[in-house]
Amino acid sequence: MFTQSVVICDCLRAGDACSGDDSCSPRLRTLRQCVAGDGSVKLGPGARNQCENAMTALLSTPLRGCQCKRGMKREKNCLSIYWSLHQSVLHGLSLVESFPYEAEERGSDYVRLASIASEVTAVNRCLDATKACNIDETCQKLRTEYVSACIQPSARSGPCNRPKCSKALRKFFDRVPPDYTHELLFCPCTDTACAERRRQTVVPACSYEDKDKPNCLAQLRVCKADYVCRSRWTQFQYDCQPGEPSAGGCQQENYGACLLAYTGLIGSTITPNYLDNSTLDVGPWCSCAASGNQREQCGDFLAFFHDNVCLSDSPPFQLGISARAPSGSWLSGKFCRSAETFLFCVVSAAQKLPSCRKLISVCADKRRGVKENRWETADLSGFVVETSHQT
């Protein structure tokens, strides 16, 4: 019998193993029929009982705990297996709530990136981020690919081919390390020229904007009908779930995971971006007009972007050395908090050790799109300084 004692994290492998098991295979096939429709036609009058029995049996197999990797080969197939079982409500059946993607652990060559940072100007961090990307072969190649795909006119769809553009964007954000993608997307700006460059990162004219703003709930329904988009949205809700300000703003206490989940939405039906170049507000290109009696639900969807303290207060990615330090405490004001755990370090060719500054606090005025940072020279005594490398 194919049981839970067999540990298989990958849903593709778990699905293949189930398909080769005489007792598991028919139950998975039954549950997929339940997912595909109401089950009554294909499964007969006893459809509900058959669906419940199949679900209960499969919860005792490795399918229950399986997940997928973002950007993996056959990602959609993997997620189809995941969603066959993991849904909160399926035609009145209570199923398991979970999140579809494995936690990502991406290494970062902090010292090399810090060296790059020491050689470029600090006047425009967004321009610096582009220069850093152009030095890295993978980042430069995939960025060139998506920009080309997003600006190339299409005979059928006019100014650009949005599906092709979206696919290239997903490839870029799935395969390029966050060292580069986060610095491109979240680079701090003090003027509108810099902010506009940041807003243009995803080529919004093709990937984001349209003549009219569709209804947000209509866009969300389209998203949920697609396994990949649905999974990215579910992961974003989980990783960016707001928490109490005193606890740091994120329920999962992981800003990095929240930012990764945010970038995972880019290239989907609900692609988010900066709403303009004068604020730090982000969200999808949609509105709550024509929401009828679902206006509150629509507002909640937009609020997960506009008023999400976990997302808006995620510290920008730092080039440099990572250090373990005590958690920071919040200062007065919703968007002002201690940042004593974050260091910015640069390494020059003549230095054996990095030169670091400690970020004391970050205060952001969302309406003006301005951040005020307080720094002091970092004392690294008592800190565990780490460098990690890509594998």
UniProtKB/TrEMBL annotation:
Molecular function per GO: signaling receptor activity
One Pfam family linked to the record: GDNF
SMART domains xrefs: GDNF (SM00907)
Subcellular location: Cell membrane
One GO BP annotation of this record: cell surface receptor protein tyrosine kinase signaling pathway
Membrane-protein topology: Lipid-anchor; GPI-anchor
Domain of life: Eukaryota
GO cellular component, one term: external side of plasma membrane
Alphabetical UniProt keywords: Cell membrane, Glycoprotein, GPI-anchor, Lipoprotein, Membrane, Receptor, Signal
Broad class of the protein's primary localization: membrane
Gene3D superfamilies from the UniProt entry: GDNF binding domain (1.10.220.110)
Domain GDNF/GAS1 intervals: 11-90, 126-206, 216-310
Entry's family note: Belongs to the GDNFR family.
Name of the protein this chain belongs to: GDNF family receptor alpha 4a
